[in-house]
Amino acid sequence: MVKSTTKSSYSAKNIQVLEGLQAVRKRPGMYIGSTGVEGLHHLIWEVIDNSIDEAMAGCCDTISIRLLPNSWVEVTDNGRGIPVDMHPTKKISALQLVLSTLHAGGKFGEEGGGYKVSGGLHGVGVSVVNALSVHLKATVHRDGKIWEQDYEIGEPKNKVKAIGVSKKTGTTIAFQADPTIFETIEYEWKYIIDHLRQQAYLTKGITLLISDERTAEEKDKDKTSLPFVNNQYKFHFEGGIASYIKHINKNREPKNKNVFYTEKSEGDISVEIALQYTDEFSESLYAFANNITNPEGGTHVSGFKTALTRTLNNYARTKNILKEKDPNLTGDDVREGLTAIISVKIPEPQFEGQTKAKLGNTEVKTVVENIFSEQFTIFLEENPKDAEGIIGQCLLAAKARQAAKMARDTVLRKSALEGFTLPGKLADCSSRKAELSELYLVEGDSAGGSAKQGRDRHTQAILPLRGKVLNVERARLDKILANNELKSLIIALGTNVGEMFDIEKLRYHKIIIMTDADVDGSHIRTLLLTLFFRYFPDLITRGFIYIAQPPLYSIKKGKDITWIYNAEALDKYKAKYDINDSDLQVSEEESDTEVEEIDEEKNKSTNPKKLNIQRYKGLGEMNPEQLWETTMSPANRVLKQVKIEDAEAANQTFDILMGAEVAPRKKFIQTHAKSVKNLDI
């Protein structure tokens, strides 16, 4: 038995009890995920979810969201209004109870307050919004009166009081997020618009009104704020998720002109599914439970996939399209080019994990499977032209899969024989621990050579890429595996690709794209991101993909060098040291030592502040020591982790930028041209 050399006591007095909403302020990340941009916007979603719950209960059809000056946000609905009468056991107004008590609301009791289904039930509630706000004001129109209550940092400043009369019903929650809690309190207009558009599609018939009434200065800080239509939007979709499908596929060529749509219930479970096939090579499948997005799918997705494969195979055999000797279409075959939305509404959803990324209710699988199988069979029979287009797409995918399998087998045989060594390409690291290993994808042989010399050979592997890799947005897997650069990358990753993909075999937990800071470098980076997004999405969602940030400038003063990573940082540097442009000597190429010494002596006599600045256009301009110091050393480097905040928005962006249609890409460039900074052509 080991005795401690220091005395310590552990008794009842050491047990800390956090009263009321103190726990939320102490550990905000537990309740809203983070205190960054996502957590800040989560406050808005929580308030809106309560209003949408009213809409799903059939008691609300209009919700208004206003961004106001000084980071205020106001959400108003025309629902029933939060009750204001005295709670029978707590002896305070029900409004105050909802706003100041965790897990208090009208969705937990046996009656459920009229909420058959609810998204807000599984959120953290408006009480958490209250706890994390400097100020919150609740206004309720109910029982013929207008009721009001104010809060500061979660504490009520007054009792609930009637301030007027009203013939309307509804609730308004206005709040101002606490800047001492959040890393930023600047809301992003586009982020809000994209989320609310999705909610409008998922709640058929509801009207969402969004207006940006911030000051001009606040709008200028928000780079996503657009000057058209006075920053006001109105969303109303009678077609629901069928309209959502058309929105997603607006830049794609459909295989079935009529969008399949069904909405049916079985018991307490409501199922809504819409789908359409296009000429894309990948699938776009979005799943929701009670309007909460489930990026990892769940039982509703499993039921849908099973029914889709079975129904299309049955139809193809019934119509003699698939002969007796032909193998069945696989799940991958029937999902190529598929755009589908699955939305279920259930009384008590069970999610796996805190983020609600995956639905776990087992009974949902059977319900979705039965409803979709029956309705999709009817659709195929009633729309033979659409059925022909869908089956044709699936058969084409099956042929491509066979070609890809042959190509993949060739790659695997080759990699097995070579033992994953790629002469002249991959300079592997000595570590075999994936969590410690990094793979740098480097543009060009010159930069690749510097990176190989300057790296940490124990943990850092280097794979130089020659030229621009294949645009995989318009290529199937067999063509990808025939491309030497991409084939080398796939072998280096170790995960395989397509239906054989296994993330557990990933050889590096940091895959770092390192390209030049010019147009060509940006293009290569975009091509690689397209590959990862379309064929290795798990590498992005698991946080394994990074972008290196090499410096744009070096500033020399004598023998001291300061590295500057972007134009904004350069402006801050000049402001900090009171440097004018006349104090700087700018060069595109490295000056030799003799000239530097002469210039330095000259600077001392003419202008003591004169500095030599070099603009780097390519990684190859840096020697191995400089590349290590600025871009590869874990102690100094700047890496940006690639994340997918909105899968549907990311999908659309890749469609526009990398797809075959020119018109949408031209419009995108024209729309965003003015917001591009430091364009280097």
UniProtKB/TrEMBL annotation:
EC number: 5.6.2.2
Pfam families: DNA_gyraseB, DNA_gyraseB_C, HATPase_c, Toprim
InterPro entries in UniProt: DNA_gyrase_B_C (IPR002288), GyrB (IPR011557), HATPase_C_sf (IPR036890), HATPase_dom (IPR003594), Ribosomal_Su5_D2-typ_SF (IPR020568), Ribsml_uS5_D2-typ_fold_subgr (IPR014721), Topo_IIA (IPR001241), Topo_IIA-like_dom_sf (IPR013760)
Alphabetized UniProt keyword annotations: ATP-binding, Cytoplasm, DNA-binding, Isomerase, Magnesium, Metal-binding, Nucleotide-binding, Topoisomerase
Extent of Acidic residues compositional bias: 586-600
Binding site for Mg(2+) 1: 443, 516
Top EC class for this record: isomerase
Domain Toprim, residue spans: 437-551
CDD domains: HATPase_GyrB-like, TopoII_Trans_DNA_gyrase, TOPRIM_TopoIIA_GyrB
UniProt site positions, description: Interaction with DNA: 468, 471
Cofactor: Mg(2+); Mn(2+); Ca(2+)
Superkingdom per UniProt: Bacteria
BP GO terms, sorted: DNA topological change; DNA-templated DNA replication
Record bears the keyword ATP-binding: yes
GO cellular component: chromosome; cytoplasm
Keyword Acyltransferase in record: no
Cell location: Cytoplasm
Positions of region (Disordered): 585-607
Reaction it catalyzes: ATP-dependent breakage, passage and rejoining of double-stranded DNA
Residues reported to bind Mg(2+) 2: 516, 518
Cofactor binding: number and manner: Binds two Mg(2+) per subunit. The magnesium ions form salt bridges with both the protein and the DNA. Can also accept other divalent metal cations, such as Mn(2+) or Ca(2+).
Subunit structure: Heterotetramer, composed of two GyrA and two GyrB chains. In the heterotetramer, GyrA contains the active site tyrosine that forms a transient covalent intermediate with DNA, while GyrB binds cofactors and catalyzes ATP hydrolysis.
Biological role stated in the UniProt entry: A type II topoisomerase that negatively supercoils closed circular double-stranded (ds) DNA in an ATP-dependent manner to modulate DNA topology and maintain chromosomes in an underwound state. Negative supercoiling favors strand separation, and DNA replication, transcription, recombination and repair, all of which involve strand separation. Also able to catalyze the interconversion of other topological isomers of dsDNA rings, including catenanes and knotted rings. Type II topoisomerases break and join 2 DNA strands simultaneously in an ATP-dependent manner.
Extra facts: Few gyrases are as efficient as E.coli at forming negative supercoils. Not all organisms have 2 type II topoisomerases; in organisms with a single type II topoisomerase this enzyme also has to decatenate newly replicated chromosomes.
Similarity field: Belongs to the type II topoisomerase GyrB family.
Protein name per its UniProtKB record: DNA gyrase subunit B
Species annotation: Candidatus Magasanikbacteria bacterium CG1_02_32_51
Gene, per the UniProt record: gyrB
